[in-house]
Every structure is written in structure tokens, then in C-alpha cells.
User: What shape does this take?
Amino acid sequence: MDTNFSLFNQINSLSYWLLLESNYKSSVKLNADDDCYFISVKKGHEILYAHEIANFSKKNKQYLQFELAAIVNHLLHIKDSVTFNRNKSA
Assistant: This one.
């Protein structure tokens, strides 16, 4: 399986999990006109995490994989924090 496709699936799954299981709002946008990929996670009006990959289609494949993996790691960290706080308060 293509690594980038797998990473995109993880990003989408984690974003969806945050929407369903927490009070965080996440959005993922691929804008073909601007050739950029953007993700953000908010709690209320406060941005907790945001990352933009500009010149998306022109990125070196290995560097793009590195950036996507970094996004996955950040989202996993947020998910772990949500899960930890939920277990702590239970």
C-alpha cells in the first residue's frame, strides 16, 4: 500500500475520532487551486494544532511522507491526551 495513502487515512480517521469523541473540532482541507493541504484542531475558538503543506503536489515524496507522519504523530498525541483526561476524570 502507498505510504502516503495510509498516512492520509490515519489523519482522516484521527480527525473523525476527535470530532466524535471529544469537544475538539478538526478540519482537513486539500485545496487543489492553491496546491495546499491544511489541517487544524480547535477547542472552542482556540487553535490547538494547525499545519499547512504548501506546494503539495511539488513536494519531494520522502519529505511529504515525513510531514504527513508528523501530522499523524501530533494527532495521536492529542488523542492520547483526550483519552488520558477522560480516564483520569472517570
Summary: Helices lie at 3-21, 61-89.
